[in-house]
Specification:
Helices cover 87% and strands 0% of the residues.
């Protein structure tokens, strides 16, 4: 589990380096916006991957109760992950508008 977390952090850092170096706006605000944009893209890709895995688990279950329980848990986690990503994007939009729109 720790290896996956470390690999994920390394991958995230590798994906963020070009954005931070080649950022058009070299301000803190621009860098934070770029990092948030990359985080959104990565989160959306992960959600799609989790949904594909969930579908494959249901296909592989073939009616076996134990495998169906695992697939159902995966379905619930995919729904929760999708909701979390959507709520995070909405929160980032609301906070960004509140901070930078000036109204």
């Amino acid at each position: 589990m720790k290896k996956r977390l470390l690999l994920s952090l390394i991958l995230l850092n590798v994906l963020m380096i070009p954005t931070m170096v080649l950022a058009a706006a070299v301000t803190i605000t621009g860098m934070v916006a770029n990092i948030a944009s990359i985080a959104q893209i990565v989160a959306n890709i992960l959600v799609v991957i989790f949904w594909i895995i969930t579908g494959l688990l249901f296909l592989a279950a073939q009616g076996a109760p134990e495998k169906l329980n695992t697939a159902k848990k995966s379905l619930y986690m995919s729904i929760a992950g999708t909701a979390l990503v959507i709520l995070a994007q909405v929160a980032m939009t609301i906070i960004g508008n509140a901070l930078f729109s000036g109204s």
